[in-house]
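Quick one before lunch.
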Amino acid sequence: MIGVGNGSDQILDLMLANLCSKTTKILTSDPTFGFFEERCKLYSIPTIKIPFSEKMQLNIDDFIKKSKIADMIYLDSPNNPTGFQFTRNDLKKLIQSFKGPIIIDEAYVEFADSSVVSLVKQFDNLIVVRTLSKAFGLAGLRLGYFAANKKIADVFSKIIQYPYPLNTLAIQCGILALEKSNKISSMFSLIKNERRKIIQNLRKTGTFDVFDSSANFVLFDAKGADSRVYNALIEQGISIRKLGKLGRHKGCLRVTVGTPEMNSKFLLAIRDLLE
Ligand SMILES: Cc1ncc(COP(=O)(O)O)c(C=O)c1O
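Model of the pyridoxal-5'-phosphate complex:
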């Protein structure tokens, strides 16, 4: 069953506000999607966080072990801001081993190679959240949706969100966008190719730690030169995200994969900067 919301932010927020309490322990990664973390803080919902490794990877066995003391799990898959994604098999192992609700946030899934959405039919505890804000470029429309078992979807749609969850314009635009999704799927492979190009070229500089990504952005540690890189790019009209310290990495920057022209401009600017 499908439920909808004014962006996936709202779906996550409503789930936290209505399905959790101050004693609901949520297992997640560190870092995880910032909004989710902030909303947990707002509602005083405790989180158990598993940090990313030096190479910005997670280990599923750590999650399976820690899930024994958790009431709920939230994972963004791919993760924002690292771009890391567990394999489908790993996630299936976790979902299978856990009794409570598990939210898999697939905001960036169109740029990845796998999804767990089809597992919703098999596992009653699985809630897969998606959005039209990323791959469809419709962030301003505020349209998110989730797939879950009928009981969860009914409670959400008929009680939590009752009576008018979305405006008609958003519903109609969303239907149109989803109907055209096969037309834009060639864009997803273009973005994956461009992502590979950015990762390879940044690695070639030998200056940064560049992490693998399954999303439409690439995270790298500029190793103390983050402010210099960030400011030099701004001067050339290139805006990337300055994230600073993430785990043991102190100077993290995140660049969104753009058009081939934008990406080349970014890579040239980096090359000039390092010369
Ligand atoms: C992992 C993740 N989930 C959800 C969202 C929210 O998307 P929406 O625009 O649908 O609220 C974002 C936006 O940055 C995100 O990174």
